[in-house]
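Study this fold:
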Amino acid sequence: MMTIPRLLFNSRGRLGVINIDGGDERYLTFDVPNQVSWGWGPLFADGRRMILSSYEEGKAWEGHVQTHLWIYDLEEDRLIEEIAVKNKPAPFMGCSNILPGEERIITNPIIDGKQRVWIMNLDGSDPQEVTHEGEGFTYCIQVSPDSRRLAFHTTGLPDQPGYSIFTTDLDGGNRIEIASHPDHLYFGPMWSPDSAWLIYQDCMYKTDPGHDWADLCLGKSDGSIHRVIIEGQRHWFGTSYGSLETRGSGSNMAQWSPDGQTVTYTRSEPGSRTAWPYQADRPDTDHFNRDYYPDDARGGTAICLLSPFTGAVTDLISYEPRIWNFRATWSLNGDRMAFCRAVVGEPSGLWVVNADGSDARLLTTGYQNKGADHPMWV
């Protein structure tokens, strides 16, 4: 019997599942007290078990929130067990990756205000520090497809106010700087399928304190090459602060196609601006607590495919005024792409499109039409 591909997504703190034909839409509920929100994590090789994160009350980015990690069975719709409870190094600890062999995981505890990288067994035993005290606030950890190296970005390094990109061995050794500059926010490294290259964002944060826009960069994983491949700060990067009345959240990363020939590029139209431009005379506001004025948004974004080696750009989802397309995510075999779309002032919807740009269609606008975001293929 043919299995219909499914998409997992987030909808205002709820976890949703939907078939790509639009059927069997459902939202997960768990009988676990004091958990205010849940998040998807990495999948096991069987395609049905995955790690979920749950969060108790509080501001997660401050590092004091109590989090929990769980193994969840998607087919049986049940939590199997809580994991990583032994030797837990901090109240807040996420899980970014399951290592080959599926006995150890990469976790991201916030210790003394700095997010670090640790590897441990599923139950939390035998912990190993990959990044250490004094090595900055590190997250967005990506394991290379050959499972030999890690890539991540780091901020808070001594004498380095920006964000830097590094790769290391799995134990933290052989650390290589890929990109670093005090005036630049290098962010979100993603491995090419052959583990030879990284694509990442370059935000000029001093003139763009909202982190809305970025160039795209290509780096060799051995540190020998770093070059800007899209200039003009036109990639829509900081969708947390975007044109959505429903406040879509999370940075919008470029993604490699499964064949390694192109990367996704969320291109803004000239003159585009998000719903609440940063205002230096409003010191009472910050990135996490803004007033949003959707009618102030201008322009919008297209989803493009960019060859990082030749610079050729092909539109997949074309620009339309006041429509913001983002979060493009390839299916496992590369025949389709999921993406999010928001008309200014309306909830973001979850869409699918064929790899050639045909048959773009809306699947859902999320729980009670409150918005859908962060698609993940199963």
Q: What stands out?
A: The CA atoms of residues 31 and 116 lie 30 Å apart. The chain has no helices and 28 strands.
